[in-house]
Amino acid sequence: LRLVAVLRATLEGEKAAVLKRDHHLPLSFHRRQEELKFGLGLQRLQHRVHEIQALQDGPTGKGPGLDGAVQSPAPGTAPQELPTLLLEAVKELEAAKQQVLKRIQIWKRQQQLAGNGATFEENLAPLQKRCENLVEVYFQLQQQVMGVSAELGPELLARLLERFNEVLSSLVKR
């Protein structure tokens, strides 16, 4: 029984050492996963911006397209597709904003814990890059919305601008 007790204590000690060592792996894994999710969301948002730009250029004849018969149905479909694309883009912008705000909150908490002696390795460069990328896409979308404000109607335009202002103000405040 004494041998079993010694082996059990040894195995529990090894288990605790393995868990302690591997405890830090999920944090870096989750951080990398978060970075990839944000990068994917930003790419999706930039793709939406390009889709909206292509839709705006298509009916006016600025963008690439076919002649005559194809352009006549496009103006009928563009006013319906444009608000949908803009609303989806704003929704994705808000989701990206939430990811940035979550990361800011994590950074603030790590900074607070550093005052109590915890290690604090995080610098502001990745966070600043996220904010700059998001604000760049924000301004592109806002310019596109203002460019088609006549086609959207006053109610939809006011709602979109309100959502844009909320995104920017929450980023600035935090």
TrEMBL record:
Assigned keywords, A-Z: SH2 domain
GO biological process entries: signal transduction
Keyword Metal-binding: no
Location of the region described as Disordered in the Swiss-Prot/TrEMBL record: 55-78
InterPro entries, sorted: STAT, STAT_TF_alpha, STAT_TF_CC
One MF annotation (Gene Ontology) recorded for this entry: DNA-binding transcription factor activity
Taxonomic superkingdom: Eukaryota
SUPFAM superfamilies named in the record: STAT
CDD domains associated with the record: STAT6_CCD
Residue ranges occupied by any STAT transcription factor all-alpha domain in the UniProt entry: 88-146
Pfam families: STAT_alpha (PF01017)
Protein name: STAT6 protein
The species this protein was found in: Calyptomena viridis
